């Protein structure tokens, strides 16, 4: 648990200073604060970061800064609502694609967050730790959206975590997803090179949109798209033609695939943030009750041997069944 160096705990109204522990290392600052400031509106958390009232190691910082073990985060006085009792994470193992002394590759189901925070009591990592009390070290190497299924890497040693995260930062990993989108995607390979801009809606919900290269807050994002198959329209069910795509990301921006595909007029089926609301309702009635985005293939160099590893996680049954349906 993050230790409090001075002042009252975050549930009080005085300033305090938090020290980042190993479990929180690597988190974005905004997610770290949202985890500790339960009951504080997101808009207020982002305001105190922007205003400079939050300090990281005594300096001004930004919401997307990554915290490291031992960092000191100073919080200004904030009023926090009483926290409800925290629900303990149940012990849970997940389907394993690869495991050795250095790492474990899981096939994460949709609907499960990778970690607790932002209104979620626990996620994959907390459940895995509970299932493996003897494990001395289990840390997420990267993240997947809660509604995305597929390959998720967990490091079993700090040296493995450092080596793998460096590969993700330097873009030497290969990350390919399967996505079902509305409409007929062009047969040729398409490169989407459009910066992304993160913003908050009035209710505090985080969203992302494409922007221009002149936007000072835009982050470059590159996505490669290859059409795998086209599903014919199912007129009797009110469904348009749809395309199954292999999507490889060269950068790892928040909601990158979802926003890039939607910006081309081909939103992901079942995407409640950036998709077609009316179509999603029809898809739900036909058995597609989730977003059709799956982390299908991952390539990386093994942190100990240097061997190039390629993992595949096949489509989960609910997605495979939907694309295999030939009902006209």
Structure description:
It is a single chain. This protein has 328 residues and is an alpha+beta fold. The radius of gyration is 21 Å and the shape is globular. The protein folds into three domains: 73 residues, Structural Genomics Hypothetical 15.5 Kd Protein In mrcA-pckA Intergenic Region, Chain A, CATH 3.10.290.10; 74 residues, 2-Layer Sandwich (Pseudouridine synthase); 151 residues, Pseudouridine synthase (2-Layer Sandwich). A hairpin with an 8-residue loop joins strand 1 and strand 2. The protein contains seven helices and 16 strands. The strands form three sheets. Strands 5, 6, 7, 8, 9, 10, 13, 14, 15 and 16 form a ten-stranded mixed beta sheet that branches. It has a four-stranded antiparallel beta sheet with strand order 1-2-4-3, with no helix packed on it. A two-stranded antiparallel sheet has the order 11-12.
* SS-derived structural category: alpha+beta
Write the CATH homologous superfamily of the largest domain.
Pseudouridine synthase
Mean pLDDT: 90
Radius of gyration: 21 Å
Number of domains: 3
Question: Low-confidence stretches at least 5 residues in length (pLDDT < 50)?
Answer: none
- What is the class of the largest domain in the CATH system? Alpha Beta
Q: What coarse outline follows from CA principal-axis ratios?
A: globular
Query: Could you describe the largest sheet, including whether it forms a barrel?
Result: 10 strands, mixed
Number of strands: 16
């Amino acid at each position: 648990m993050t230790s409090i160096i001075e002042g009252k705990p975050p549930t009080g109204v005085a300033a305090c200073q938090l020290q980042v522990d190993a479990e929180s290392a690597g988190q974005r600052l905004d997610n770290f604060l949202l985890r500790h400031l339960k009951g504080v509106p997101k808009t207020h958390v982002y305001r105190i970061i922007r205003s400079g009232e939050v300090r990281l190691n005594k300096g001004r910082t930004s919401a997307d800064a990554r915290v490291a073990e031992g960092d000191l985060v100073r919080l200004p006085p904030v009023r926090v609502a009483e926290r409800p009792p925290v629900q303990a994470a149940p012990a849970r193992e997940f389907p394993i694609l690869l495991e050795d002394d250095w790492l474990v590759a899981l096939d994460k189901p949709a609907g499960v967050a990778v970690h607790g925070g932002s209104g979620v009591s626990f996620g994959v990592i907390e459940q895995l730790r509970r299932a493996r009390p003897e494990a001395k070290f289990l840390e997420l190497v990267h993240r997947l959206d809660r509604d995305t299924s597929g390959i998720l890497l967990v490091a079993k040693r700090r040296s493995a975590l450092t080596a793998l995260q460096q590969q993700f930062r330097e873009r030497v990993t290969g990350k390919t997803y399967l996505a079902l989108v509305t409409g007929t995607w062009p047969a040729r390979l398409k490169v989407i090179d459009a910066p992304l801009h993160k913003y908050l809606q009035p209710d505090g919900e985080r969203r992302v949109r494409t922007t221009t290269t002149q936007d000072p807050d835009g982050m470059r994002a590159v996505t490669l798209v290859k059409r795998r198959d086209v599903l014919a329209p199912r007129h009797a069910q009110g469904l348009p033609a749809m395309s199954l795509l292999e999507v490889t990301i060269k950068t790892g921006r928040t909601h990158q695939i979802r926003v890039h595909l939607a910006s081309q007029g081909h939103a992901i089926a079942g995407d409640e943030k950036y998709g077609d609301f009316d179509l999603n309702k029809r898809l739900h009635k036909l058995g597609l009750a989730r977003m059709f985005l799956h982390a299908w293939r991952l390539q990386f160099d093994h942190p100990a041997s240097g061997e190039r590893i390629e993992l595949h996680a096949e489509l989960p049954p609910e997605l495979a069944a939907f694309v295999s349906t030939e009902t006209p």
